[in-house]
Design brief:
It is built from four helices and nine strands. It is an alpha/beta fold and about 210 residues long. The strands form two sheets. The chain has a five-stranded mixed sheet, with helices on one face. Strands 2-1-4-3 form a four-stranded mixed sheet.
Length: about 210
């Protein structure tokens, strides 16, 4: 049984919709496109509406500024539902991506730095940004070059999966750099004998 014309979960108030549909569309002639992007040509408004009725779908104005205006025959309720679902999924994905922090000290040795770099790699491969910080205590602040060298090694160790999102900068006694995932780069393949590690949001240094 054919569904009644214009049935579907279409938002009622016109201001809530981005498009004019069906009887809201004005104009004597309209260029009409089918649901599979087939060209129906230029039709009168009456024939365009009838075409949508015959296909049990809606006539949607997609290019009002064109001459003649362009309309598409689609199930608008289904279209709005799928569009809303895509937007919701995109917002959810964006919400899940966080800024992870890796904390270092001027005295961090090579082994500890490699350990932190592996954790950072896990974060980046999951789509998170990583902020690496070096905290200077007391007179260590006069040796910021050590911290910069440390952060540069950290950056170099992740160059295959990341890009610098925020350059090195000093805030009080903290020197930091922020890396972001680089989807254009392919991550290095893990060695077979390399055991996976479980990363936490903040990795504390193991040496004092």
């Amino acid at each position: 049984m054919r569904r009644p014309y214009f049935r579907g979960p279409i938002p009622r108030p016109e201001q809530q919709r981005k498009h004019k549909i069906n009887d809201e569309i004005t104009g004597t002639e309209l260029r009409v496109i089918g649901p599979e992007s087939e060209q129906f040509g230029v039709l009168s408004r009456r024939d365009a509406l009838q075409k949508a009725r015959d296909m049990d779908m809606d006539l949607v104005l997609i290019a009002p500024q064109a001459k003649p205006p362009v309309c598409k025959v689609i199930d608008y309720g289904k279209f709005m539902y799928e569009q809303g679902k895509r937007e919701k999924d995109q917002k959810k994905a964006q919400h899940q991506k966080e800024l992870k922090e890796i904390r270092l000290k001027p005295g961090t040795d090579t082994h500890d730095l490699d350990f932190k770099t592996r954790h950072a790699r896990e974060f980046l491969e999951k789509g998170h940004k990583v902020k690496a910080t070096v905290f200077f205590r007391g007179r260590e602040i006069v040796h910021q070059d050590i911290g910069r060298d440390l952060l540069q090694k950290f950056i170099d160790g992740l160059v295959d999966v990341s890009k610098v999102d925020q350059d090195m900068r000093t805030e009080g006694r903290v020197l930091s750099v922020t890396l972001a995932p680089d989807v254009k780069k392919e991550p290095k393949k893990k060695k077979k004998d390399e055991e996976p590690t479980s990363a936490t949001d903040t990795v504390e240094p193991t040496n004092e």
